[in-house]
Every structure is written in C-alpha cells, then in structure tokens.
C-alpha cells in the first residue's frame, strides 16, 4: 500500500496528500470489492444481456 501511495504522489506532484481523501478512496474501493464479491458468490452474472 505504501508503494502505491508513493507512486501516486510521484506521478501527480501538484495534488497534496490528504489522509481523509485517501481513506475515502480506500472505503469506496473496499465497498466496490465487497459488492463484486457478493455478486460473484451469489451467481449473478453482470453482462450485456441485462441491459
């Protein structure tokens, strides 16, 4: 995780690093992963046929 944060800081030096922003991004990524895992375990296939 530290390597990812350092890589992002080096890639975008103009943006100041704020802990609250990082926590919010981590929470959204975690929520997306949780939803994806729940859909995968329930057997629901999200494909083009649904839309």
The helix/strand series, from N terminus to C terminus, equals: HH
How would you sum up the major sheet? none
- Structural classification: mainly alpha
Approximate strand percentage: under 5%
How many individual β-strands? 0
What's the rounded overall pLDDT mean?
76
Number of helices: 2
> Which percent bin holds the helix content?
55-70%
Task: Report the principal-axis shape.
Answer: elongated
Distance from first to last alpha carbon: 36 Å
Instruction: Give Rg in angstroms.
Output: 16 Å
Q: Which segments are poorly predicted (pLDDT under 50) over 5 or more consecutive residues?
A: none
What's the quick description here?
The protein is an all-alpha fold.
List the helices and strands and how they pair.
Layout: H1 2-11, H2 19-42
Main attributes?
mainly alpha; 67% helix; elongated
Report on the structure:
The protein is mainly α and 51 residues long. Helix content is 67%, strand content 0%. The chain is built from two helices and no strands. The radius of gyration is 16 Å and the shape is elongated. The model has no long low-confidence stretch (mean pLDDT 76).
């Amino acid at each position: 995780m530290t390597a990812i944060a350092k890589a992002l800081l080096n890639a975008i030096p103009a943006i100041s690093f704020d802990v609250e922003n990082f926590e919010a991004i981590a929470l959204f990524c975690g929520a997306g992963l949780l939803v994806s895992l729940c859909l995968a375990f329930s057997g629901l296939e999200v494909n083009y046929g649904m839309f």
